[in-house]
Design goal:
Blueprint lengths: L1 E2 L5 E2 L1 E5 L28 H14 L3 E5 L9 H9 L6 E6 L8 H7 L3 E5 L5 H8 L4 H13 L3 E8 L8 H10 L3 E6 L17 H11 L4 E2 L8 E5 L6 E5 L12 E4 L4 E3 L8 E2 H6 L4 H12 L6 H7 L10 H4 L2
Parallel strand pairs: 3-4, 3-12, 4-5, 5-6, 6-7, 7-8, 8-11
Antiparallel strand pairs: 1-2, 9-10, 10-11, 12-13, 13-14
The protein binds S-adenosylmethionine and iron/sulfur cluster.
Iron/sulfur cluster (SF4) binds next to helix 11.
Length: about 325
């Protein structure tokens, strides 16, 4: 079991497999994209599998594949299948924008992916275009339907943005009436690759809940599972549930069980740090498994107490230079 210097169990890895994406969500990256990583800078699938094998041996039990958009990377099923066969791994999940995902759903089911986070910030096709700069709303909804049809749990991630989609909060909540989905509202964070100026948080978790209560005053609090990053709720009579993720307010750091690996192989022990070890570079320099394990244990032993401390310790200017697509959102 992996325990950090603050007594927190580490058992969850988020692995970003690419920085590239087929959408341009304005809160994540600029309209003309990022300075994409070259093939050489990216971790190969072999390197990913090798590092995940070691991390699972050390105590990681759950891996989430993210990006960028995982399904724009060629042969992604090859990696997913390899990971699904790792002895000791209890859960393999994916976060996707759903544009290219639908045709892969039967295979995902077959290899044991039981839950998928689907990003969808609005139920209005025009607003979807305004937010993502691409006309792909129909494909995302198609993916949601396909996942539900195959009995894969669906969690919808919606970033709440002042002046952009707050009118979607209630319609998104209403999705939970008939569908067994969990709709999770996420506070907007400053990681937008300078796609826009981050003006500070106007919609925090308290305001989001207040907005839901205007229409649903009977909303009930659910118990939050261990290590949950969301405050969870249920509306009586609805099939699905609601979560609110205080990603900017950082109320969950005290129980944080997660680490991240970026597409270029940098290990982050906090979303707000600037990378604490480059696993890919170490592997390419021929490090032995024992030495890599020792280095990993060392960084897990020097983990920031919370996101505020990690942000203060960054040695680059401000988080907006980074995009969620390059840090394993
Ligand atoms: N492309 C995939 C997707 O959109 O689901 C996976 C990668 S994306 C970076 C992962 C999650 O990060 C998405 O749910 C997205 O909404 C969220 N995200 C991106 N930028 C964000 C920001 N600035 N603040 C809060 N959440 C953000
Ligand atoms: Fe792409 Fe996901 Fe970022 Fe949107 S949030 S631009 S879909 S990586």
């Amino acid at each position: 079991m992996l325990i950090d210097n603050h007594g927190r169990k580490i058992n969850y890895l988020r692995l970003a497999v690419t920085d590239r994406c087929n959408l341009r969500c304005f809160y994540c990256m600029p309209e003309d994209g990022l300075n994409w990583l070259s093939r050489k800078e990216l971790m190969t699938y072999e390197e990913m599998l090798q590092s995940c094998t070691l991390l699972v041996k050390m105590g990681i039990e759950k891996i989430r594949i993210t990006g960028g958009e995982p399904f724009v990377r060629k042969d992604i099923m090859q990696l997913l299948t390899g990971l699904s066969e790792l002895p000791g791994l209890k859960e393999l999940t994916i976060t996707t924008n759903g544009v290219l995902t639908a045709p892969f759903v039967p295979e995902l089911k077959k290899i044991g992916v039981s839950s998928v986070n689907l990003s969808l910030d609005t139920l209005d096709a025009n607003r979807f275009f305004t937010i993502t700069k691409r006309d792909e709303f129909g494909k995302v909804v198609g993916t949601m339907e396909e996942l539900l049809k195959h009995g894969i749990e669906v969690k919808i991630n919606a970033v709440v943005m002042d002046g952009k989609n707050t009118q979607d909060i209630i319609p998104l909540v209403e999705l939970t009436k008939e569908l067994p989905v969990s709709v999770r509202f996420i506070e907007e964070m400053p990681f937008n690759g300078e796609g826009h100026v981050y003006e500070g948080l106007k919609w925090d978790y308290i305001r989001i809940l207040d907005e839901i209560k205007t229409k649903y005053p009977s909303i009930e609090k659910l118990p939050d599972p261990a290590y949950s990053t969301s405050y969870n709720y249920h509306i009586p009579g609805h099939h699905g549930s609601i979560g609110i993720i205080a990603a900017y307010s950082r109320t969950f750091c005290g129980t944080c069980n997660r680490i991240r690996i970026t597409p270029q192989g940098s290990l982050k022990t906090c979303l707000y740090d600037n990378g604490v070890l480059n696993i890919k570079d170490l592997m390419r320099s021929g490090i032995s498994e024992n030495d890599l394990q020792a280095k990993l244990l060392d960084v897990f032993n020097h983990r920031a107490k919370d996101g505020w401390e990690a942000e203060k310790n960054r040695n680059v200017n401000d988080p907006a230079h980074e995009s969620m697509a390059t840090i394993g959102g």
